[in-house]
Amino acid sequence: MKTLRNIVGRLSAAASLPAGPSRRGGQAIIFVMMVLVILVFVALWQFDLHKTLFVKYRSRNGGDAAALAAARWQAISLNLVGELNIMQAVYISQGLAGDTNAFVEAKQVADLEARVPFTGPMVGFLAAEEAAKNNGMFNNAQFTQDVSDHAGEIRREYLTRYPDPPYHNDPEPPTAWDDYADMCDEIASLGVAAAPDNARYYTDFADWNHMLLNPSFYDAIASQDWCWFFFNAYDLLKSYQSFRDWPALPIYVEPRPADSEFFGLDLRRFSQLSLMSAIPRDNGRPITVKDLLIKLKELADPQYIDTNVVNVAANWLFYRDEVWSSWTDYIGKDFPFRGAVKPEYDYAGADSAVRLVNNVERHTPGIQGADVTWSAAAKPFGTLEGAIKPCQYGLVLPAFTDVRMIPIDASSAPAAGSRPGWGIHIHDHLPNYVQNGLGGLDPNCWYCAQLRTWEDPTFRATGIQWLLQHSDECVIRGPGPGGGGGGTHRGH
Ligand SMILES: [Zn+2]
User: Which residue among 219, 253, 286, 401 has the highest number of C-beta atoms inside a 10 angstrom radius?
Assistant: First the structure.
C-alpha cells in the first residue's frame, strides 16, 4: 500500500497537481487512482493473456512430444514383432529340416513375440509421460487415478474374463495379466501427465441394439439430451415402466487380446498360416498364403524358409483386418488433408493420441483459472519394398520407418477412446440391475447413477413433455457415439 501511495504521489507530482487536501487535489487523486486501477487490470489481463498463450504453446509442445514418443514405440514394437515372425519361420524351417532343437527355439521366439505387443506400447506410454514432463507438463491427478483404477480392474478381473492370456509365465502366478497390471501400476506411480486418448479396453463391448449396452444412452440421460431419445429411443421413453421391461442381456462377445489397451498395435493371434483366408486387394488378385510365403522367403534371405512352414501350428501375430483397413475410408472424403493420402500410406491402425489438461492461474481478480486442453496424435508410417502397405500380407512384417503427427480428427481418438468404469458396469452391475432393479445398482458408478435417474418417472415425463413441444427443433447430428445412430468407426 505504501508503494502504491508513493506511485500516486509521484503521478500527481508529474501531473503538477497541487499537493495537499484541497478539493481539487482530492478529485485528481481519485481520478489518478482510477486510471491506475484500470492500468493494473490491463497489465494483469495482458499477463494472463500471455500466460494462457504460453501454457497453450507449452501444452502443444508437450502433447506433440508425447504422441510422437508413443508412436515411435508403436513403430519399434511392430517392427520387432515383424522380425520375430520371420525368425519363427526360420527356426520352424530348421526344425522341418531335422534340427529338433529348432522347434524349441521357435517356441521361445513366439513367447518373446507375444510379450512385445504389451511391453513395447507400455514403454511407449512411459516415454510419452517422460516427453510431456520434459516439456513442462505436470501430473494430472485424474489421469493418474484412471490408470491406477484400471490396473486394479486388470488384476482382479482379467484372468476370469480373458482366461486365455497372450503368453504364460513359468511358474504362474504372476500371469501375463499380472505383468500387465504391474506395468500400469508402475506408470501410475510415476504419475500421468499425458492421458492416452485412444485407449481401447477389451471390455469395451457395446451393443447398439440393447440400450443398456449403448454408451450413448447414458450420455443422453446425463445431459438430458431429449433429441437423442427422440431419434433413438422415443418408444422406450414413452412406454418404459420398470427394469422388468429390459430385454435379457446378450452374451458379451469377448476379444482374445493380443496387445496392450494403451497405444495398442491392433493385432490378433493366428495359429497356422495355411488357414489364412485370401486378403482382398483393391486392384488385382487377392493376396494368398502362397504370396505370403514368397514374401517371407524374400525377407528371410539368405536364411532358408521351408514351404511347409505354413502347415505347422505356431504363434503368429497378424494385423486385425477390420482395423488396418483404409484410413481415408473412415476419415471421410471432405477431411481437409493438405494432399491426397498416398495409397501405400492409406491404412488405419496403431496410432497414438494423447490429451493434456493444464490449469492456467489467472491474476485478474474475478476471473477464474481455466483449463487448457490439448490433444495430439501421431502414427507410425512405412511401406514394404515396392511401396506396398505394411499390412498387405496380413502377417506383421517389419516395415515402419517413420513417425508423423496426424490431425486428431483423423486419429482413432474421437470414436474409440475407452471410458473408465464401463467394463465393471456392464460385467458386474448390469446383470444385477436387470435382476433386481434399483437395488442392484452400484452407489459409486457413474453409469449406475444415470440408470437411477432413468428409473425416476418424473425424469422420463419431463422428456416426453419437452418433446411434445420441441421435437421439431431436433436435428440429426453426425455419426459417432453420442450422436445419431451411435457406433464407432473402428471394430470392437
Ligand atoms: Zn454401474
Answer: 219
| Owner of C-alpha cell 502347415 | 311
Q: How far is the CA of 456 from the centre of ligand 1 (A)?
A: 17
Predicted pLDDT at 93: 94
Sign, CA dihedral 220-222-223-225, equals positive
Helix (H, G, I), strand (E, B) or coil at 290: helix
CA of 435 to the centre of ligand 1 (A): 14
User: In this structure, which residues have their CB less than 5 angstroms from ion ligand 1?
Assistant: 425, 429, 442, 445, 447-448
Q: Is the bond preceding residue 250 a cis peptide, omega within 30 degrees?
A: no
CB atoms within 10 A of CB 124: 25
**What pLDDT band is residue 254 in, cutting at 50, 70 and 90?**
confident
Closest among 485, 492, 14, 48 to 232, alpha carbons compared: 485
Taking the centre of ligand 1 as the mean of its atom positions, its distance from the CA of residue 440, in whole angstroms, is: 9
Ligand 1 centroid distance, CA of 208 (Å): 18
Query: 45-80, pLDDT tens digit by residue?
Result: 666 666 666 667 777 888 899 999 999 999 999 999
Q: How far apart are CA 360 and CA 56, in angstroms?
A: 9
Find the 427 Cα to ligand 1 centroid distance in Å. 9
pLDDT of residue 250 exceeding 70, the answer is yes
Give me ligand 1 centre to Cα 271, in Å: 37
* pLDDT above 60 for 335: yes
Give the Cα separation of 319 and 270 in Å (integer). 10
Exposed e or buried b for every residue in 27-38, given b needs 16+ CB within 10 A? ebbeebeeeeee
Q: Is the peptide bond before 171 cis (omega within 30 degrees of 0)?
A: yes
**Chain centroid offset of residue 64 CA:** 15
Residue pair 286/393 in contact (Cβ under 8 Å)? The answer is no
C-beta of residue 183 within 8 angstroms of C-beta of residue 118 = yes
pLDDT in tens, 121-171: 999 999 999 999 998 888 999 899 999 999 999 999 899 989 999 999 989
Tell me the three cell numbers of residue 150: 484400471
Cα of 8 from ligand 1 centre, angstroms: 62
Q: How far is the CA of 251 from the centre of ligand 1 (A)?
A: 18
Domain residue extents for the chain: 2-46, 51-138+193-203+254-418, 206-251+422-492
Rounded to whole angstroms, the Cα distance separating 88 from 106 reads 5
Ligand 1 centroid from CA 445, angstroms: 5
